[in-house]
Amino acid sequence: MISHEFLSRLRKLRLIVDSKRTGVHKGIRRSHKFGSSLEFSDFRSYQPGDDVRLVDWNVYGRTRRHYIKRYLDEQEIKVAIYLDCTSSMRTVESKWLLAKKIAASLSYITLVNEDRLSFIPISALNTRSIERKGSNYAKQVLSEILQLQLKTTTSTFVKEIEKKLQKGKQLTIIITDGMEAIAEYEKLLLKTASAKSKILFIHILSKEEADPEFTGDAKLIDSELETEVNVSLSPKLVSAYQLRLKQHNDTLEQSCRKLNVQYIFLSDDKTAEEWLLSDFISRGIVQ
Length: 287
Hints:
The chain is α/β, with parallel strands linked by helices. The protein has helices at 4-10, 57-63, 87-90, 93-112, 138-146, 157-161, 182-193, 207-210, 235-258, 272-282; strands at 26-45, 67-75, 78-84, 116-122, 130-133, 171-176, 198-205, 216-221, 228-233, 262-267. It contains ten helices and ten strands.
């Protein structure tokens, strides 16, 4: 499902997070603080209380002044990725596959950069979270996410994610189709934003959902509530649906901006490779 060439390009990327959000455990991500890595930064004058082992005696021999070496600190970030695995996300296979590929790729990037990953699949079923750190787990986790298969009907995404929200993350990524009331998403984002984590909201819809080609009489079934409604799909009704969908999506994006949440809309008319290696880079999500 993912080529070796694509994986080799993913290995060269890293998630962009403000250095002030770094964690306390060692990693390979450069922190804004000085520490004890092997990468030299600069010198500064020795001050009482400094570790004498940091004094550079070669510099002292030349200048007769005491200077200590400073090294850049390298720390990890903690990343939580929440993937919508509810019935509405899985109804259209191409949308579900795109969502899994995006989640798997971002998880892979997290692990190859020695950051700490929490991958949380969201549904009403007893789905297992993945907690990993280290590049040696990257391919295994990628495979586990791509092979996620759920069959039964589930409840709504917002209701389930609120039960599994984690604190203490420097980056929170939410991947969903946005098929719920705006007020519910605003409540979720407000709760997530209060943890002072950088939040990325990835909104995925299929081309079929954005631009339906159905005509004539049809029975529409809510994939989560299992309610039914009979409709006659005319061009006028489809246009009204598209207008309402656009208003919903625009309002969702505005809500994200209001709460300082980075919003990105994806459609399955482009591949995960195209989104990640082009749009995600240009939008400053990865580099």
